[in-house]
Amino acid sequence: MARQTLAISILCLLSLTALSAQPTLPDPGGMTDEPFTEISGSDYGPRNFDKRTDRDSNPHKGIDYKIRDNIKGRAVEGGAVTNVQIDKKNPTASYISIGGVWSYIHIATNTLGCQIYAPGTAGVDEQGDPMPASNVVVLREEKNGVWRTTTVLGAEVGSFKDPKTPDVKSVTTYVSSRSWVFLAHPNQQHLHLQYRQGAENPLKYVLHSDSNTPVAVLWPKFKRIGLDGQASDFSDDIIFNTFQSLILQAGVDVTGDKDLDKVEISYLMEGDFSSATLNGWAYEPATTSGSIKSTWAPAGKIHISSMVPIASASEEGVYPAKNVVSLDFFKYKWDTRALNAPATGFLSAPLNSMAKYPDGRYMIQMGAIDITGHTVSTDSRPPDIGYSSSVGNTIL
Ligand SMILES: [Zn+2]
Q1: Domain for residue 394, yes or no?
Q2: For 91-126, what is each residue's pLDDT tens digit?
Q3: Both 364 and 252 in a single domain?
Q4: Do residues 24 and 202 lie in contact, with contact meaning Cβ atoms separated by under 8 Å?
Q5: Within this chain, do residues 275 and 354 fall inside the same structural domain, yes or no?
Q6: What is the distance in A from the centroid of ligand 1 to the CA of 184?
Q7: Does residue 204 sit within a domain?
Q8: CA-CA 20 to 30 A from 362: which of 77, 159, 214, 379?
Q9: How many domains, in total, are found in the chain?
Q10: Are the C-beta atoms of residues 29 and 183 closer than 8 Å to each other?
Q11: Ligand 1 center–CA 95 separation, angstroms
Q12: What pairing do the DSSP bridges indicate for beta strands 276-282 and 245-253?
């Protein structure tokens, strides 16, 4: 039986391409052009914790900022107030939408500093009409021991006579960038910032910690899946093995920037000029429950686990390290005995001439790209390379 082996090369394999746009919007907590680094809880993409409620999303559709207590949350971009939503089942999920694209979720609904009123719940205005006409967010501040109304935000124009202060305000239907738009709900203590309902990562537009090199540290691994179903480290150069299938694992550490976008695993066979993608994963759009976009659907399934079980896990998919923000692992089973074309009666190639990955030397490259286009890639191979009996068009 001949062997297939892996060899190292310096060719660039990855098809990951960079975006040109760079973020310019101020972060919602610092309200300055400096990156606000306190992204806490969850980044965009697969969830890193397994506390589930029916409102939890996995993948996570936005960015959680540590904007708590009475820290003023600011609009990252100006625009019309397009929606004030009161979630009656789960008040902590209430939100305000601005410009039709940005949603600020987990706003306080019933505090003096930040309160939401549904139509007709705030009494009547000076003309005797029920207030408000549509949902509003009322923001108040204490000045010299007296609470005053700062702003009333809503999608419909009107006037609002605040039942808790001496003030009458007209409803603000358009806010400018950096203006105060919410306080965090006391039971949530963070802002969930979401863009286009999760279709895009907010960090594409919002300033954040975004170091150029390295954006990520990759940990490539080849592993065998043993008869016990556990993956263990690869210890020789043979990728073809009848009884033990192969699993490739990329580990990506983006804990500094928290802005991972895509990961890809490719191979190049010696003698070929172009590489082929084995599998790619993309975090956008974060809208499909329980999985992220992948070239091959099963490899997009999200598994939440801690580091030790991740190391020996043999299921394909994405493994965000539990309780760590932006430390994610990606696993893909490489069927090195795959048929080149469907053949009646065969599940795997019995002959080299029928193999999709025939005898030869292969290089594997794993790469990652962040949401602003910084890439990192690394070649990978098993620890011991022996070419002696491996090259040639021999029978598998
Ligand atoms: Zn969130």
Answers
A1: no
A2: 889 999 999 999 999 999 999 999 999 999 999 887
A3: yes
A4: no
A5: yes
A6: 12
A7: no
A8: 214
A9: 2
A10: no
A11: 12
A12: unpaired
Same domain, 362 and 243: yes
Quick one: 262 and 162 in the same domain?
no
Q: How far apart are CA 141 and CA 149, in angstroms?
A: 7
Q: Judge whether 364 and 385 are in contact, CB under 8 Å.
A: no
pTM for the predicted model, two decimal places: 0.87
pLDDT-derived band at 315, boundaries 50, 70, 90:
very high
Q: What is the pLDDT of residues 329-366, one digit of tens each?
A: 999 998 877 888 888 888 877 777 788 887 777 788 88
Q: Residue 3's pLDDT is what?
A: 44
Q: At which residue do the structure tokens 């795997």 appear?
A: 348
Alpha carbon of 100 to ligand 1 centroid (Å): 19
* Cα-only R_g, the chain: 27
CA of 42 to the centre of ligand 1 (A): 6
Contacts of 330 (CB under 8 A, 6+ apart): 249, 250, 251, 252, 263, 265, 279, 281, 299, 317, 318, 319
DSSP-assigned beta bridge partners for residue 85: 95
CA 58 – ligand 1 centroid, Å: 10
Across 244-254, average pLDDT = 87
pLDDT at 31: 59
Cis, bond preceding 383 (omega within 30 deg of 0): no
In whole angstroms, what is the distance from residue 373 CA to residue 72 CA?
Answer: 31
**CA 185, 70, 257, 75 torsion: positive or negative?**
positive
Q: Report in angstroms the alpha-carbon separations of 317 from 51, 108, 291, 300.
A: 20, 36, 8, 5
Per-residue model confidence as pLDDT tens digits over 118-171 = 999 999 887 888 999 999 999 999 999 999 999 999 999 999 999 999 999 999
